[in-house]
Write a structure and sequence with these properties.
Elements: E1 18-20, H1 23-54, H2 60-73, H3 77-81, H4 84-89, E2 94-96, H5 104-140
Antiparallel strand pairs: 1-2
Helix pairs in contact: 1-2, 1-5, 2-5
Length: 142
């Protein structure tokens, strides 16, 4: 009988490899950044001459949106938000490959991106429509 036959094997298993599921968060946050860029660089600047021409008093939210658009258009402000999708992708939790796929962390980032996108669109729409509504009421005389 061999002396090593009854001894337990003493070796360590390699640590599990970790992986990230970040295609979803990168795609969603890229969409958010594209909306921010389109609004700040193209949409909001078109409304500014309208507001200046009619010399109407702008609501606070519209003033903030216009100053944000100025920041985006001057000094490469738009360049500072480009890496955000990659930053949020690295916030996704790492999952061992031997475990079943858990989507909890990824779901949170995707849902937060959807919520941010919806709130962004609502904010931009509200900030641009409020002065136009006051302008319409002033022109109609009501």
């Amino acid at each position: 009988m061999n002396s090593t036959e009854h001894q337990p094997l003493d070796y360590a298993s390699p640590p599990p490899r970790l992986r990230r599921y970040w295609a979803g968060p990168v795609a969603m946050w890229s969409l958010v950044v594209i909306v921010w860029l389109a609004a700040g660089l193209f949409i909001v600047p078109r409304f500014e001459p309208i507001f200046k021409a009619f010399k109407i008093r702008l609501p606070f939210i519209t003033q903030i949106l216009l100053s944000w658009s100025h920041w985006m258009n001057t000094g490469f402000g738009w360049l500072q938000i480009l890496p955000l999708p990659i930053v949020f992708a690295f916030l996704t939790p790492r999952i061992p490959e031997d475990r079943p796929r858990s989507r909890g962390g990824t779901r949170i980032l995707v849902l937060s991106a959807i919520l941010t996108l919806a709130l962004t669109l609502l904010l931009i729409f509200t900030a641009l429509i409020m002065p136009l509504l006051s302008l319409l009421t002033a022109v109609s005389g009501k």
